[in-house]
Amino acid sequence: MTKIAICGALGRMGKTIAAMIDEDPALEFIGGVDVGEGTLFGKKVVSSENIDDFLAEEKPDVLIDFTIANAAVKNIRAASKAGVAVVVGTTGFSEEQKEENRKNIEGTIPAVISTNFSVGVNIFWKLVREAAKQLSDYDIEVTEAHHHFKKDAPSGTAKTILEIIKEETGDREEMYGREGMVGARGKEIGVHVIRGGDIVGDHSVMFAGNNEVIELSHRAYDRAVFAHGVIRSAKWIAGKEPGIYTMDDVLGLIR
Ligand SMILES: NC(=O)c1ccc[n+]([C@@H]2O[C@H](COP(=O)([O-])OP(=O)(O)OC[C@H]3O[C@@H](n4cnc5c(N)ncnc54)[C@H](O)[C@@H]3O)[C@@H](O)[C@H]2O)c1
Ligand SMILES: O=C(O)C1=N[C@H](C(=O)O)CCC1
Questions:
Q1: Which one of 125, 136, 162, 167 has the lowest number of neighbouring Cβ atoms within 10 Å?
Q2: Is 156 annotated as a binding residue?
Q3: How confident is the model over 201-230, as a mean pLDDT?
Q4: Is ligand 1 within 6 A of the CB of residue 91?
Q5: Which residues are annotated as catalytic?
Q6: In angstroms, rounded to a whole number, what is the distance separating the alpha carbons of residues 235 and 212?
């Protein structure tokens, strides 16, 4: 049985993932870490300042992190010190934080990191790449919508979409919203962020040409779609060589 612990155990994603682990006969939920203490599925959730002791005592095979960027950096550092594999879904890392994570992971522990663990989004990214490659001279607008609690903007998924589009189209910069006398459109990628209600996660990319528009979109209706990908990643990463892996590796998709 693969022993799993969760950082951010008492959050929206933490609870969804723990419930799925609890139902899976191949996995054992051994507890977690959050800002305050608690219990979840009969297991201890300890305060984040005690993460080193928690990892040393409970010895999970995999630590799953769905917290917030500055906390995730510390949790990955603790997992690296303890030699525990990680699955990281937290978004909103700065370039410096990504670099620190890379240093803590490479050569030390295996990690799956993804801004979106839904299988559908991972296929959607492939479709966006192909459209951007073929329609590199079209006007491109990216829109994302999430629930009113979401802290980072644009979403990690939207940032991955922007990276993909830039890799395929070259010389483009983002423009966040537009207001006033903005003049004629240039080669920018328009980015639009919506926050409201309990929207789980919507992303769309519009390619507008003369006399035609192509729109690709993905809508998540339940956090279970992310949790399924996380569980699949946790099973896959246990026992792998140190290094940073993506959902392409987990799903066996061609990059
Ligand atoms: N990659 C994906 O597929 C995916 C899917 C959904 C959410 N996310 C990301 O996951 C993160 C969490 O999302 P959420 O909706 O569950 O948020 P949330 O606010 O409901 O949960 C985050 C939890 O982390 C806890 N936390 C904060 N600091 C901590 C620390 N130092 N140690 C341990 N726990 C700590 C909070 O108390 C909270 O319980 C966000 O960055 C979000 O963007 C990613
Ligand atoms: O609810 C969130 O927060 C989500 N975060 C990820 C992101 O930032 O892309 C994935 C979708 C849900």
A1: 167
A2: yes
A3: 98
A4: yes
A5: 146, 150
A6: 44
